[in-house]
Amino acid sequence: MTFPTIPTVAASRVLSVLATAPSGTHTSPNLSSLTKNSGDLLIAIVIIYDGNSTNAEFSAWGGSFTEFVDQATTVTMGIGAAYKWSTGSESGTFTVTSADASTNDSAFFLLSIPGAHATTPPEGGTIANGTAAAADPGSLDPAGWDTEDTLWIAVAGSGETSTTGSYTGIASAPANFTDYADSGISADVVGGVEGAVAFRQLTASSLDVGTFSVDLSNARNSALVIAVRPAFIDIIPSRQMKDPSLLQVLSH
């Protein structure tokens, strides 16, 4: 097996955009600016200040994306995520709708990942929420996977709850995670938002990612982990080959 490739900002495989007062309609970064090839796994992640429902917050994903994370409460950050396998020709922007149509802000990420499994969707863990402490998601053990060369994606959102003092949002990734990318802070207001992602390639059946470094004095924060399964090659003896040293390679 080979790990899915870590997407980076430098390679234009991680894009982000902030929205101020989006009123429940959140617009993606421009797919035309995303580096992608046919077969790459595309992941869209939207982070909002809070929800108007519990775990039924997001709907109407455009761009032929299929939702696999939808987690929120009325008093914490909300995180939604959706995926598709790229045709290599996606362009323009698309939107997702949140039940929360308030003036609170949002952050939207697009990821393009080569080397992901061609039929297994990414899997998201359970959101963790914090105010007095950094949100610490539980261990994720993707259903039906073995110990594989998995790409683990840590996702965090921070929201400003008070304009007293200085709001610093998210500062750094969990331990052992690399290629940290953040959206920046949307605005210094109650309801301002910052989102961040970071990555780790690790051969494991499950992972407890730990915590991002976040502002705890004027903020709420939420986090979760996403697992991306690798494409893999099985090598088995060919039953048809007369020479037993020859192998049949099956890709799937």
Structural overview:
This protein is mostly beta strands and 252 residues long. The chain has strands spanning 14-19, 25-27, 41-48, 58-59, 66-71, 78-85, 95-98, 106-113, 123-124, 128-130, 148-160, 170-172, 178-182, 193-204, 213-214, 219-228, 233-237, 247-251. The strands form five sheets. Strands 9, 10, 11, 13, 14 and 16 form a six-stranded antiparallel β-sheet that branches. Strands 1-8-3-6-5 form a five-stranded antiparallel β-sheet, with no helix packed on it. The chain has a three-stranded antiparallel β-sheet with strand order 2-7-4, with no helix packed on it. The protein is globular and about 50 Å long.
For the structure shown, list the relevant keywords.
252 residues; mainly beta; six-stranded antiparallel β-sheet; 18 strands; globular; disordered C terminus
Low-confidence stretches: 233-252
The residue-averaged pLDDT reads 92
Distance linking N and C termini:
11 Å
Helix content: under 10%
- Would you tell me the structural class of the helices and strands? mainly beta
The count of DSSP E runs of length 2 or more, i.e. the number of strands, is 18
> Using only CA atoms, what is the Rg?
19 Å
Sheet with most strands: 6 strands, antiparallel
Helix segment tally: 0
SSE arrangement, N to C: EEEEEEEEEEEEEEEEEE
